[in-house]
Structure formats: C-alpha cells, structure tokens
Design a protein that fits this description.
InterPro entries: Cro/C1-type_HTH, Lambda_DNA-bd_dom_sf, NACHT_NTPase, P-loop_NTPase. It comes from Lentzea fradiae. This protein is of the alpha/beta class. It is about 60% helix and about 10% strand. Strands 2-1-9-3-8-7-4 form a seven-stranded mixed β-sheet. The termini are far apart.
C-alpha cells in the first residue's frame, strides 16, 4: 500500500510539474515527508498530511479518494459552510410567538379537557378537488385529528382544502395542524400562520400583499425593513410562511368567486378551510382550487359522544352517567341525534350541563325540534359561564358587539374599530378643546372671566365642527389604523408627507381664522361699546396664515419622521393598545412645542408685515407664545381625538358607548374576562366570538 501511495504521489506531482521541494512548499509539509512517502520509507502519514498533499496537487474527487485509500485512510466528509440566512432569527421568533399563542388558545378552549373530540374526515367528492395529475399524484386523504400533518404531507402539491358545515371542527383542526407542524418542523420548513379570510377583499388587495398586512397587524415586529421590503412581505414572497387560510366562507358575499380566482393565480402551498356550500358555489362559478386536494369533515357519531360526554362530569343518574338518557336518545335517532353531530354543539352542551352543577342534561329531551335545541344551547351558553344575574348585564354588551361586527362585515373585534362618527368625534373634540382652553386661559389670566367662558364655548363649537369634517374627510379615504411608529428621520418628503402637510394647511387655516374671529367676538360681547372694525378680518387672516402654516409644518414633520417600531410585546389587543397610546402621546409631545415656537417666530414676521401696511397689530412675544401653547395643546387634543385610532378608541369605547349603555365603562377588562370565560377567543391583536354561530345568535337576539 505504501509503494502504491508513493507511486501515485510521484505520478501526480510530475503531472503538476512540481519538484519534491515545490510540492512540500505548496503543501506546507517537510521535504523529508514528501521524499519518504514517495520512496516508501514513511508508511503511516497523518490525515492532515494526506489532505494537504491532495489540496496542493489539486486532485479531483475520485483522485483524492484513491490517494486516501492508498494511504489506508478514508477522507472524512467536510461539512459545507453554513449559508447565512438573514431571515433565520425572524422566522424563529415568529415560530415561538405562534406556538405560544395557539397553545394558549387550545388550553383556553379546553380542547384537551378531558380529551379532544374525535374530529375525522374523508376525501371530498371529485367535483371539489383538482385532478390528481395537477395535484402531483394520488394520496390517501382519510384521517383523524392527530393525523392532520401526515395527511397534508401526503399531498404532493401541499395545497389542501378542508370543508365542513358550521361547527364541524375546522378551527380545532387548523389549530392542531399548526401546533403539530411546528413540533415536527425542520429549520428550513415554512412557519404555518393562521389567517382569518373574513377581512380579505380580493378586489382591493392581492393575496400576497394582504398576507403581509395581516402579518404586520398580528406581529408588529415584522413591519421592520427586510431584504425585499418589510420582513412580512419578504417572508411571504420567499415562502417562509405557510398560509393557513381559515374561513373562506366568511369572505363578504359576492367575493367568493373572485377570491378563488386570486387563490388560483398563486402557487403558494396552503391549507384552506370553508363551509361546504360556499366553496361549492364558488367552484361552480369558477373552478376548483388549482392543484388542491380536498377533504370533508365527518359528523360525530353516537359512539363518539358516548366516549366523550360521560368523561366531562362525575355526576351520575339512575342508569349510570348523567348523560345516559341523552345518549340513549341519540342512538334512537331524532332531533338530538341531528344536533349533537358537530364539535360546536357538543362543546356547548358540555359547558351548559357538565360544567354547571345544577343543570341536568335530561332537560334536552323536552325540546322538540333541532332548531329549538340549537337555540337553547346557544342562548344557555352565556348564563352558564357568567351566572344568571351577571348574564343579564353582559348580554346587551355582547349583542351590541355582534351587531357592530355584522354591520362592519367582519368577525374581528378590533379596538380601533369600535366606532366612527363625524358628529360624535366633533362633539368630543369641541368639549376637550373648550375645556382645555378655558383652563389654560384662566391660569394665564389669574382669574375667571366671562370673556374666557364665552371664548371657550365658541372656540370649542367651531373647532369641533372643523375637526369633525376633517375626521370624515380622512376616514372616507383611509380608515384609521393603529400607529406603530417611532421617531426616526427617513429622508426626503414623500407623497404621505405632502398630503398631511396640505391637510394641516387647510384645516389649521380654518381653525386659525375661526380663532381670530371668535377672539374678537368674545371681547365684543363682554364690552359691546367697542367697535367691530376691519381689524377683525385682519386678525382672522393673520391667525389663519400662522395656524395653517404651523399645522402644515407639524403634520408634515410627523409624517416625515414615522418609521416602523419593533413592538414584539404587542401580540395581544392590550399590548397593541398600549404601544399605540405611547406612540400617539409621543407625537403630541413633539407637536405642541414645535407649533408654539413656530407661532412665536411667524407672528413676528406677520406683525412686521402688517405694520408696514399700516395696520395696528400688537403681538408681543409672550402673547404669541401663550397663543402658540394654547393652539398647540388644543390642536394636539383635536388631532388625537379625531385623526388617530387611539383617540377614536377613547372617544367611543371609553366615553360614548359606555355613556349610552352599549358597552361597560371598563371595556378592556370586559373583553379579557369574556375571553377567559371562553365566550370570545383571541386572534393576535383582535378578539372574536368563540364561533361565528355565537356571533350570529347575538346579532339576531334583539
């Protein structure tokens, strides 16, 4: 073997045109080592020496293997250098957040208490799936809940449609799919993310853009810049997230076909859930989901109920379990057998009768029709979780939420969408500005004066009307969204900056003109002997110019300084609300002093110009500073209450709706309590009713 090694080494050295000295130098080994190996004097070279000689001779893969074999060694494989993945940390952070969220949701819904309901499915009719040729090959699709990932991985195209009637277990299945897929996930696999399709309008935004928007809403840290835009858009475009599209049937009426066409325009791997009828109608008007297999969730059987319901309570009856009369009725057929076939109705029955000590399941036997049984279970759910007395207080609040969501056409209880009304907003702005002005002017004057009261009332009315119109103008163009910003200079002004500046110029100028007129009018009403001269209009014009330019500067500056904020804690409605409040207050703290300083500087220029035109206008710097501070504080309040999502939350959820009895005064605590009792569920930054059927029930309960 040694002579073979020496022969090979000599052959390849001569082929390379190297002397023994040159080879030794190139391989950084001793000349005696090369000579000894070629002559056979050295028979046991080290692994590193053989590798260095092979590298110096630039041997091919087969030649390297032959040289190592001649040396009596096998070259260990060299691990490929790890490829840098700029998204690795982001993907892993997202994975941890999603796993924690949905594990908490499973616990909250008592999915494993005592055992999960036996959700099963079979292959859907051929008319509801694509051809096996397009899917990539036939696959066995029947399965049960603990096999959902296995069944999905059998589908070559990785596109699966899960169909089922209302309450059949689609939400339970998607949650289990996400958790099981994350548990078996390799680092290179995409992260499954559940998206509620009810808010998607395919005619307004493409699927990929909508997915990115939803990711940012649910996980705000994904709004940070990434290699190809935001981190969210980069994850979607690079297929690092697996969309789990829940609730195709919840898309607004008339949009199902266009939604299916949009889904067919992409080859993204995905899992889609829908009620059967809505999906069948969309397929009839277009085509099936391209390259997608489909399954239909099966009804629960009497044996499934017998294996589950008796385990949810230790109470007994004459024949054994308290549930025995119900189970006997189910086996005999009839209305109960028709109703207790979905996980939703079974879980409601369990909550009403197993988890409530004084309720006997046998009461269900007295109900005559399936519709009567369903309405009874839905209406009994809230008294069961709250108790009869508290349920009477809570029911009107839940009813208002359900009706509000129905009007919006959504299932998301988003704190920034509790209401929008130009009249209510104008009223809130007027009261806030009037009170603030009265307090500030009284402090400056050192006494309470009738003139100040009159001015506060009039400026409140005028400012409320102007900002009510501003609110209506802005909301009609773009609904208010939570502010997720931090202050950071971004560079040149863009379209958003100019748009905000023009808005400030228009409405700030209107407020300024009104301020000048009302100021003179209040003084004249207290001292009627004073004359109303043309200086009134000079004052109004001067204030309009100063306030308009000041508001344009401030709003444009705010828009120019906005940049994404990494708020990783804002993975809940309360977290997003807190981060939004901090961002809004930070903006206002910047707006007030900037506006005040601008007013001081601008009034000096304006008064000089007016003096040159022989108008008697005297604005001393202290007076200008006071006006700037009053205008800045009043303008800041008006901006917050009318043009920010957090301000609208304060106006409607914290004041107007509790004042009119439609919601409690502690809205956040009420929503969190409803979530903990299982009436609501949490989907990132929003709440939802536990099931769409429950929302529909409350919406029709008046």
């Amino acid at each position: 073997m040694a002579s073979q090694l020496g022969s090979l080494l000599r052959q390849w050295r001569q082929r390379a045109g190297l002397s023994q000295e040159a080879l030794a130098q190139r391989a950084t080994v001793g000349i005696r080592t090369v000579r000894g190996l070629e002559t056979g004097e050295r028979t046991d070279p080290r692994m590193g020496t053989v590798r260095a000689l092979a590298d110096a001779l630039e041997l091919t893969g087969a030649e390297r293997a032959e040289l190592f074999a001649a040396a009596g060694r096998d070259e260990p494989p060299v691990a490929a250098p790890a490829r840098f993945d700029p998204l690795h940390e982001t993907v892993e952070t997202l994975k941890v957040a999603i796993e924690a969220r949905w594990r908490r949701e499973e616990e909250q819904r008592q999915v494993h208490d005592p055992v999960p309901l036996p959700v099963r499915w079979d292959a859907a009719p051929e008319a509801l799936r694509d051809s096996w040729l397009n899917i990539g090959g036939e696959a066995g699709l029947a399965g049960r809940l603990d096999q959902v990932v296995e069944v999905y991985r059998r589908v070559p195209s990785k596109r699966l449609v899960v169909l089922g009637r209302a309450g059949s277990g689609k939400t339970v299945l998607t949650t289990r799919f996400v958790l099981d897929l994350l548990a078996a996930r390799d680092t290179a696999d995409p992260v499954p993310v559940i998206f509620g399709l009810g808010s998607w309008h395919p005619g307004r935004v493409g699927l990929r853009d909508w997915l990115a928007e939803q990711l940012i809403r649910e996980y705000p840290f994904l709004s940070a810049p990434g290699p190809g835009g935001t981190l969210a858009s980069t994850l979607v475009d690079s297929q690092r997230v697996l969309p789990v599209l829940d609730g195709f049937d919840e898309i607004a009426t008339g949009l199902h076909r266009s939604a299916l066409l949009a889904l067919n325009a992409t080859t993204l791997p995905l899992l889609l859930t829908s009620r059967v009828d809505e999906y069948r109608d969309a397929v009839a008007g277009t085509d099936v989901l391209t390259s997608a297999a489909a399954v239909v969730l099966a009804d629960l059987t009497a044996d499934d109920l017998a294996g589950y319901l008796p385990r949810t309570t230790r109470r007994t009856g004459p024949g054994g379990s308290a549930w025995k009369p119900v189970l006997d009725e189910v086996r005999a057929g009839g209305p109960l057998a028709e109703v207790l076939t979905t996980p939703l109705m079974v879980s409601l029955a369990r909550r009403v009768y197993s988890d409530t000590p004084d309720h006997d399941p046998a009461a269900l036997l007295a109900l005559g029709t399936p519709d009567e049984i369903e309405r009874h279970l839905l209406s009994s759910f809230v008294p069961a979780v709250y108790g009869p007395a508290r349920a009477a207080r809570v029911r009107p609040w839940l009813t208002h939420l359900a009706e509000h969501l129905t009007r919006l056409g959504t299932h998301d209880i988003a704190w920034w969408q509790f209401g929008t009304s130009a009249r209510v907003t104008g009223l809130a702005v007027g009261v806030a500005v009037g009170v603030a002005d009265l307090v500030f002017d009284t402090l400056l004057a050192g006494q309470v004066m009738l003139q100040l009261w009159l001015f506060a009332v009039m400026i409140g009315l005028v400012t409320g009307g102007i900002f009510g119109l501003a609110h209506r103008f802005v909301v009609l163009r773009t609904p208010l969204q939570p502010v997720r910003t931090r202050l950071r200079l971004r560079g040149r002004a863009g379209r958003r900056v100019w748009s905000r500046a023009l808005l400030g110029l228009a409405f700030g100028g209107a407020v300024g003109a009104a301020y000048g007129l009302v100021r003179r009018l209040a003084y004249w009403m207290v001292t009627p002997e004073s004359a109303m001269t043309r200086e009134v209009f000079v004052d109004a014009g001067a204030f309009a110019l100063v306030f308009g330019l000041g508001a344009a500067l401030v709003l444009g500056l705010v828009a120019a300084l906005e940049a994404p904020l990494d708020v990783r804690a804002a993975l809940s409605p309360e977290g997003l609300l807190r981060s939004n409040r901090r961002a809004v207050l930070l903006l206002v703290m910047m707006m007030v002093p900037v506006f005040a300083v601008f007013v001081v500087a601008a009034t000096g220029v304006v008064t000089s110009g007016l003096a040159a035109l022989r108008f008697a206008v005297v604005w001393e710097p202290p007076t200008a500073l006071a006006i700037g501070l009053v205008g800045g504080i009043g303008g800041g309040l008006a901006y917050v209450l009318s043009l920010t999502a957090w301000g609208q939350w304060v106006v409607f959820a914290r004041v107007w709706l509790p004042l009119t009895g439609r919601l409690p005064w502690r809205v956040t605590a009420f929503l969190d309590d409803a979530y903990r009792r299982g009436v609501l569920r949490r989907a990132g930054a929003v709440y939802q009713f536990r099931h769409a059927r429950l929302q529909e029930h409350f919406a029709r309960s008046r």
